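FW: tagging you since you asked about this chain on Friday. Here's the raw sequence from the shared folder, copied in full. Didn't touch anything.
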Amino acid sequence: MKLVVTGGAGYIGSVVTSQLLDEGHRVTVVDDLSTGHRDAVPEGAEFVQARIHECGELLAQSGFDGVLHFAAKSLVSESVRAPELYWENNVSGTLALLEAVRAAGIPRLVFSSTAATYGEPQVSPITEETPAVPVNSYGSSKLAVDAMLSSYSRAHGIAATSLRYFNVGGARGRFGERHSPETHLIPNLLRVAAGLEESAKIFGTDYDTPDGTALRDYLHVTDLGRAHLLALETSVPGTHRIVNLGTGNGYTVRQVLDTCRAVTGQPIPAEEHPRRPGDPTSLVASNQRARELLGWEPELSLEQIVADAWAFMRSAESS
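HL: got it, structure written out here
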């Protein structure tokens, strides 16, 4: 297929682009490089530097078979501090992109959604039927796009899939996390292991979990990417599917810390801090729908996530 990947210079977008190319698809990456990296765009992909608001002419002229939409602002704290950025970019930008998709007659779209749409759910594991009650503008903006996709699918026949990710980690060769600031647990722990930070931080030790720290579902980015390819292949015209992506198992912060210590062979000192407001005790995904609709299931372990992320970090430091 001939495909567009928005945000393909970012972490997940670059991984999925590399997987699409390996499967023989032709890929055009669209990214404004506001947070992405030009050198993260895989060789073999065409690159267009542009905002998603500006894709109309590109999509109209090139006969694309589908769009994979990753381009978004994604910092929760920033979305609380400056919600206007998230409504303008994630919602207005996606509306412009959808209009370009509709006008060009592109039949399928896969959207990078998030578990942040669920807010602070009281149930675990979380299914797609769990009420979506986001607690910040990032989650709200993604939920708004889900609503847009549902209406566009019904009205215009687009085959759309929203993939709601839980915690994603790991790397695929030279494609890995390079966020600034970095907010994710595993790369921050590995920064301590690499000597880039003095100590890690554990927020909350009084949760109702086996060791008192928060429980999260960690998915390897390569497993995540496979789900996007399967979503393209199994898409249904006129239908919008919402699908959780996770392993169905949770690990506490201390378990992740211990895994990072074991993989790196470094002590990784950690400081204990009070809970952060709004951090749920447990965020674990049910992946039953992903198994049924996509024929997908995760294959790679937490140890592999950490090992691949560690290899990527050491490679990036030496280059």
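FW: The chain has ten helices and 14 strands.
HL: agreed, and The two ends are 34 Å apart (CA to CA).
FW: great, closing this out.
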